[in-house]
Amino acid sequence: MLKLVFRAGISKRAYSAKAVKLTVETYPNLQRGDYGTLEESDLTRFRSILGDSSVFVDDIEGYNEDQMRKYRGQSQVVLKPKTTSQVSEIVKHCNDRKLAICPQGGNTGLVGGSVPVFDEVVVSLSGMSQIRSFDETSGILKVDAGCILESTDQFLAEKGYIFPLDLGAKGSCQIGGNVATNAGGLRLLRYGSLHGSVLGIEAVLPDGTVFDSMHSLRKDNTGYDLKQLFIGSEGTLGIITGVSVLCPARPKAVNVAFLGVESYEAVQDTFSKAKRELSEILSAFEFMDRESQVVNKKFLKAPHPLAEGSDEIPEYPFYILIETSGSNKEHDDAKLEQFLETSMEDGTILDGTVSQDEAQTRTLWAWREGISEASQIEGGVYKYDVSLPLSKLYDLVIAARERLREANLIGETDEYPVVDPVGYGHVGDGNLHLNVCVRRYTKEVEKVLEPFIYEWISQHHGSISAEHGLGFQKKNYVHYSKSDVEIAMMKDLKRHYDPNGILNPYKYI
Amino acid sequence: MSSKIRILVPVKRVIDAALKPRINKTNTGVESKGVKFSMNPFCDIAVEEAVKIKEAHKEAVESIHAVSIGPSKAQDILRTALAKGVDTSTLVDVGEQEIEPLQVSKLLKKVVEQKDSNLVILGKQAIDDDSNQTGQMLAGLLGWPQATNASKVVVEGDFVTVTREVDGGAETIRAKLPLIITTDLRLNEPKFVTLPKMMKAKKKPLEIVKPDAYGVTIEERLEILKVEEPPARSAGVKVSSVDELVSKLQELKAL
């Protein structure tokens, strides 16, 4: 699933003035599908549905480019509907005219799923950003798809609740996009996946029909659970316009510890120990290799938390961030303290720190969350988001680094395309993020990495996409993780509900 | 031969600076239930500076003592101070009562006398009441020189040179110990405390005393009548052209 990059305020354009190559130039074998072409009469129709101010034909580069500056489409028009019935009318018109559509949320996706490839009509959900209702007893929240994750969570915070999903891109990503991509994020360990917390969905099907399960209950065993089809469908079966989510009570006491350990084995040992000893208050367990901290330091431009004020990053090969959330500060503090002390004494961890105030908590999280954005400051990043058995998780980074070294692609100077591969991720969920930080995107690097990485994952029984989704990047690699029978059923579904193939084409399966 | 420096750092426990305080239902103060408390950021800077001075002048600095006047939970911030490098600490346990700057200063004067301190480094203000008075009052009660709003501190023998943040620039002053310094934001950036130091801090002394032990009776001189939110700012308006902007500004008599 998607996970955007972070902090809305920082424009990706600040990093590089180079224009993003058109996706069709990067992939010259791509063929435009047999779709209609946008005409003046279509714009007139869109204007009559939405009003002039919600149809955009100028200054739409931001909707054509993905945030990694890797993909660029050639859409001529961006539509920003404000209501579900407007979405329905737009989609119906596009289906009648066989115009392809690219649905778009906060455009923070990492696999090129949220931007057009050719001239698809972009339907942006940013205009639908109302909170529909919140039940303070049950914790059921109903929102428009375009609500920003962070502001929704702030709304919930005032009521003593929390959104069951948190990720680096929270400042710009939208809940509809989160659900469409089944975003995983930082607190999946605690609150589970969106397949569990989403209770209902409102979506517009490819023929304009409105699918509405917003009134669903927590327990409901009547028939197929159709909403699940939309969770992680990446806009290929329908455009999600509304979401109903069950939100848990917001923890009153939150602690964050940041630790240094001597090996990947020690990361695993610390994780087993944390599960045993912190049990119900453990809410996040993240690991980062030292290389990721080096890259992040260039971005954050601050002393590392374990550096004691010096400008060096300590020589520990791995770092861990542990978050605990609970309802009683004294209880949590005592538990965490005990855990950290015994782990220091038995040598599982070598050093560490615990945040003393809210500002420090945010700083410690930035050393984990900032890696995503930091990875591309030298030019770009190849991102791999994989699930693997825990014991094999980091071997993939070692294998990729070796392979890039052998090909003589890694170096400190500009002639080498690769800066360094870095590994980090959600240990609690067996989810690794391998970011190959590059100075520029080249075929050479891509050929060394792919399909090598996908084959490696397949051999080790992993998934080629743990949470970022398939999008454009991984469309051709589904078979490394799914069987022929599974893929055939997916294609059947898509054909049945979208016979013209107008929704988010060239992607997914 | 210059005399040994004994530093005193008073610290205050306040609602975490990164959180938005909410006014309580009776409009008599801010809601403190279920809210995270931390060390006042200016006090954090004071602790950091004291530790830096000690590290730079190991021979000259004999000890750093931290004191907090507050509820028993203020022990947490004293432990943090000890972990950062403070040697010993005292909590003057006044329960949940809010203490005014003058009372705080009177108590601190007693602590200074008891610990024979000759350099007091404290935050220029606490972020909860924003009084910005304690350092000045303490200097008055002790009859010591004071250097407020410090952005740089240099210790040389018995003399201390302090750069102060003042309107329109910086002012550099020099004084002989004993001295009161209050800290401003730019003085330093507090570091994270590492686990080994936190563990060691648990064994450092933290004594708890009641205010009457110092012979000080706490009497409040001020009565809080009402606490209210500042008026909300009205929303801005978008204009579509420069002409419209100019005419709006004229309407508002801003031009």
Automatic annotation (TrEMBL), chain A:
Keywords annotated in UniProt: FAD, Flavoprotein, Oxidoreductase
Record's GO cellular component terms: mitochondrion
Cofactor(s) of this protein: FAD
Ranges of residues in domain FAD-binding PCMH-type: 71-250
Protein name as annotated: D-lactate ferricytochrome C oxidoreductase
Catalytic activity of the protein: (R)-lactate + 2 Fe(III)-[cytochrome c] = 2 Fe(II)-[cytochrome c] + pyruvate + 2 H(+)
One GO biological process term: lactate metabolic process
Record SUPFAM superfamilies: FAD-binding/transporter-associated domain-like (SSF56176), FAD-linked oxidases, C-terminal domain (SSF55103)
Keyword Flavoprotein: yes
From TrEMBL, chain B:
GO molecular function: electron transfer activity
Location(s), subcellular: Mitochondrion matrix
Keywords: Electron transport, Mitochondrion, Transport
Signal peptide extent: none
Cofactor(s) this protein cannot do without: AMP; FAD
Cofactor comment: Binds 1 AMP per subunit.
GO cellular component, one term: mitochondrial matrix
Recorded superkingdom: Eukaryota
PROSITE patterns xrefs: ETF_BETA (PS01065)
Keyword Mitochondrion: yes
A GO BP annotation: amino acid catabolic process
Domain named Electron transfer flavoprotein alpha/beta-subunit N-terminal: residues: 27-218
Role according to the record: The electron transfer flavoprotein serves as a specific electron acceptor for several dehydrogenases, including five acyl-CoA dehydrogenases, glutaryl-CoA and sarcosine dehydrogenase. It transfers the electrons to the main mitochondrial respiratory chain via ETF-ubiquinone oxidoreductase (ETF dehydrogenase).
Protein family (similarity comment): Belongs to the ETF beta-subunit/FixA family.
PANTHER family reported in the protein's UniProt record: ELECTRON TRANSFER FLAVOPROTEIN BETA-SUBUNIT, ELECTRON TRANSFER FLAVOPROTEIN SUBUNIT BETA
Assembly with partners or alone: Heterodimer of an alpha and a beta subunit.
The protein's name: Probable electron transfer flavoprotein subunit beta
Organism: Kuraishia capsulata CBS 1993
